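Most newcomers find our protein records easier to grasp once they have seen one. Nothing more is needed to start thinking about how sequence determines fold. Here is such a record, shown just as it appears in the course material:
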Amino acid sequence: MAPVELQKPEGLQLSQVASDTVKVWDPIVRLFHWTVVTACILNLFVLEEGKYWHRLTGYVVATAIAVRIVWGVVGTKHARFGDFFPTLAKVRTQILGMINGSEQRYIGHNPLASIMMLGLMALLAMTALSGWMTTLDAFWGDKWLEEVHGVIANSIMVLAFIHAGAALIESWRHRENLVWSMVTGRKRA
């Protein structure tokens, strides 16, 4: 989806147009997101499985996850897990709101997006761990572990496509380019 261009309405100062957005995603959150996107594309579609660059990319993801977990505790408001942790009540409220047209707008992650994000992070961590385990002598040549690693990686791909599709649909429903907000860090106020 193309970025929404802000046009200066007649009689309005540019500083007023810029103030119509709010900073949501800090640089660490955005760097984590696009690092994971790039790494998944590389490891799922470009790099040869198990080779040096595939493994190195996996280690980059493992490092990014560690940084994101720390940042989820000490980071900016919308980066903190406490800001968006999905409870059953929050998820139920969002789903019912979507059904009856009274859905609340969230500046940060909404409850369903939070489930997706945390699920993807868990799968990424399991993929990194299982990939690393395949390099250990204790598991050298074990096909079951390679199969588990592949199933988890393919699960990431499925969830990533659902995530991307949901971001596009929600951008359309809310008239707000959510993909672009993960580039700029800003959303409509």
In short: Residues 11-17 have pLDDT under 50 and may be disordered. The chain is about 65% helix and 5% strand. Residues 50 and 131 are 8 Å apart (CA to CA).
